[in-house]
């Protein structure tokens, strides 16, 4: 989408709002597919937590993607989008056995990352195929909050506990049909990922009836002009070669699986907000927009840098601004950022807003969550209406005093 198209969407629907471009999603999906043309069986499960709108799930499924879910609610969203249960993998962490059994009864692929849960589930449901999530103890990811494969992580069963896993599997007679890892997000060092993959291959040798090996995801996407990203093509070539070698030694063609979220939708999304006030202080020029971390929390939560462009005045002289929101506490999107000259009423576009943005939005300060728009084949479609005051109070019960 170009700036004029974005402005037309804001003019039609008002702001703030999220806009997602299906053409970008399709290009990213095809890029991943092409990087792994060297393997016979590839399965891509989209990580629903990145952007869980049902229309987005339906579109990605139309491209061939299954779904990676982490809660029973995400499982239900995927089913609502028309995705068959057998194309959904469920990888919870710290949930109740009741939730896991509910997911299993639906027929989705269960992925377990806890020895206690593995034993309980295997004892009660030995014929239900289970994938095991291994923690390879490899530190990867761009932030400690999104690095999940290190030794202190709550995710996965330690690779050093492999003997315990084998004992449980032997005692219960359960069927392990997959093995899985996820080291973290924003991975740049391909060699570190390949090293972790070797650990997973070694673990896979201990299970005779595998159907797939799931390498998670975590590919880094560029967040600003000139930013570095994961070289998916180089990674695909190297991992495909090693995966085929493993399949040959294992004696069977397995499926190579991935669970990309950010990689597929991050660059497809833009968040659009209007500048309410340009405020000059003794040291800073603030551009204060009609939004806040209730709509886009990643800069405050992770220190994430979203490139910001002034689509109302793209050719203006660049000046330095701190872009802040309307939430009643420190609420900063960007500090001292070079942006084309901003005037009150201008529309700012926050790039890479497709992943972990709307899904983390809230009603803090009793603000409404924004609308979501899907841009598909040159036309805009509302896929979530803007909230109203009725949405804030619909579940409340008012007492009389």
Automatic annotation (TrEMBL):
Its cofactor is pyridoxal 5'-phosphate. One of its GO terms (molecular function) is pyridoxal phosphate binding. InterPro entries: Ala_racemase/Decarboxylase_C, DAP_deCOOHase_LysA, De-COase2_C, De-COase2_N, De-COase2_pyr-phos_BS, Orn/DAP/Arg_de-COase, PLP-binding_barrel. Pathway: Amino-acid biosynthesis; L-lysine biosynthesis via DAP pathway; L-lysine from DL-2,6-diaminopimelate: step 1/1. CDD domains: PLPDE_III_DapDC. Substrate binds at residues 298, 302, 329, 356. The modification N6-(pyridoxal phosphate)lysine is found at residue 49. It catalyses: meso-2,6-diaminopimelate + H(+) = L-lysine + CO2. Residues 25-266 form the Orn/DAP/Arg decarboxylase 2 N-terminal domain. Belongs to the Orn/Lys/Arg decarboxylase class-II family. LysA subfamily. This is Diaminopimelate decarboxylase. It comes from Pukyongia salina. The gene is lysA.
């Amino acid at each position: 989408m170009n700036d004029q198209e974005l402005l037309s969407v804001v003019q039609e629907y008002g702001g703030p709002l999220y806009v997602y471009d299906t053409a970008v999603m399709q290009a990213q999906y095809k890029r991943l597919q092409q990087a792994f043309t060297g393997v016979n069986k590839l399965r891509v499960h989209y990580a629903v937590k990145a952007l869980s709108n049902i229309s987005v799930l339906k579109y990605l499924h139309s491209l061939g993607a299954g779904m990676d879910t982490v809660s029973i609610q995400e499982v239900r969203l995927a089913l609502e989008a028309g995705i068959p249960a057998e194309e959904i993998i469920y990888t919870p962490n710290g949930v109740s056995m009741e939730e896991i059994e509910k997911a299993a009864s639906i027929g989705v692929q269960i992925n377990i990352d806890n020895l206690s849960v593995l034993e309980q589930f295997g004892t009660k449901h030995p014929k239900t195929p289970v994938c095991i999530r291994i923690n390879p103890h490899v530190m990867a990811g761009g932030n400690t909050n999104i690095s999940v494969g290190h030794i202190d992580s709550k995710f996965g069963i330690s690779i050093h506990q492999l003997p315990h896993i084998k004992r449980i599997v032997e005692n219960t007679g359960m069927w392990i049909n997959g093995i899985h890892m996820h080291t973290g997000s924003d991975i740049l060092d391909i060699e570190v990922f390949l090293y972790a993959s070797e650990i997973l291959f070694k673990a896979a040798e201990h299970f005779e009836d595998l159907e797939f090996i799931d390498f998670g995801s975590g590919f880094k996407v560029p967040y600003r002009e000139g930013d570095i990203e994961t070289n998916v093509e180089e990674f695909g070539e190297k991992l495909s070669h090693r995966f085929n070698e493993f399949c040959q030694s294992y004696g069977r063609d397995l499926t190579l699986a991935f669970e990309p979220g950010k990689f597929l939708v991050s660059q497809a999304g833009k968040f659009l907000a209007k500048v309410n006030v340009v405020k000059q202080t003794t040291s800073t020029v603030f551009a204060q927009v009609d939004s806040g971390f209730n709509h886009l929390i990643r800069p405050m939560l992770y220190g994430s840098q979203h490139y910001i462009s002034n689509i109302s005045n793209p050719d203006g002289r660049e000046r330095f601004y701190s872009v802040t929101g309307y939430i009643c506490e420190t609420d900063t999107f960007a500090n001292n950022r070079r942006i084309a000259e901003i005037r009150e009423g201008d529309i700012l576009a926050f790039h890479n807003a497709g992943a972990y943005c709307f899904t983390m939005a809230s009603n803090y300060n009793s603000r409404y969550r924004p609308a979501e728009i899907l841009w598909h084949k040159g036309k805009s479609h509302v896929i979530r209406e803007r909230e109203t005051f009725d949405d804030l109070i619909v579940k409340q019960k008012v007492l009389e005093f």
